[in-house]
């Protein structure tokens, strides 16, 4: 469905590779055969197996060994549907994704994984056409190797296009970004895959929100991370089409999740939709613990007999307002959740801004929004982000589910480079841990007997950071 891709495909690092990588060697072809000595040139056709490398046989290790590429941090990048992913190139030809530290054996595996986070329907990543080395696509380096080492090699099917690439546009990411009305993100933008070093967020340039009425028709040159002020239903003389009630445990858990890391987090919302009363009740948050997607989170939702009713994500140091990308994503999810039937089912989005200094006091702002389609006579306008009025229900007690999720989240982020350092000062006289405690205090249940358990979790956080 959305960025957490657990419902729609594998998300873990061990499952990130597509069934057949276009840049992987065929089974049984060992590296000695596949990688001829540098400068050996092409041998006569019909010679030893693997003597003439097809495009598929040219790996990152070949290009590194022959000096076309050099191992370094942050030299690899992918732009896809308004998101940027950055990777380190290892001396052994592996790629380390900076956002999570996951290691991938090929451009294809990394590209497929990243693209599925943005677009879960993606089948292949077109790694060599999508991954750039110092701004230039890898397949250009592959072509340069072929021109140098095999100028007379007969073209084969494989040499024309790597497996899985022929069905895609070579400029796939730019083409799709243009079609979607978005543009590739520049280096300074904040998004799910923002890869500044730990702490970089604090100095990042603040994004100034714009009013919806200033946007006009879609413009692919406009930064998709532009924040947009929400509009109230009353301001456009309309009634909110559904009612919403959210349990305090939902807010407690997603607020806790959002405080843990300098990177954006994401999760599902589970609950129920009553068509008779038109009431959407949000009962559980399901944090994604594999960064941008988690199959277990999705599975837990169904095990508890709940429906998928929305999603949440964080803007760690910015205001809890939707970006143009968030608006487009939310519009997509609304359509998907509604399905093909005639009955209306809403999909709610929540944005949490934990460390935004514009928030009054210590409490994070958690902002619900919903997107109204643009007027029919202006189909090329952006959707309208609407402020949703919500009733908050204080839970009687903290459930074991929520406590377990909090413990698992602490464990997941332990040692991560973007983990918030909770002993450091957030303001002149308050640490990040003070900030977290102050925000959660407003979302606790009536029964206070769990307080000592929360203190244990806070102690774990201190240790882990």
Automatic annotation (TrEMBL):
Spans through the membrane: none
GO MF assignments: metallopeptidase activity
Residue ranges with Acidic residues bias: 20-36, 163-177
Region feature Disordered, mapped onto this chain: 1-48, 147-185
Domain MPN: 244-371
InterPro entries the record matches: JAMM/MPN+_dom, JAMM_MPN+_peptidase_M67A, MPN, RAMA
Annotated SUPFAM superfamilies: JAB1/MPN domain
Pfam families xrefs: JAB (PF01398), RAMA (PF18755)
Compositional bias per record (Low complexity), positions renumbered to this chain: 37-46
Descriptive protein name: MPN domain containing
Species the sequence originates in: Strix occidentalis caurina
Lineage, highest ranks first: Eukaryota, Metazoa, Chordata, Craniata, Vertebrata
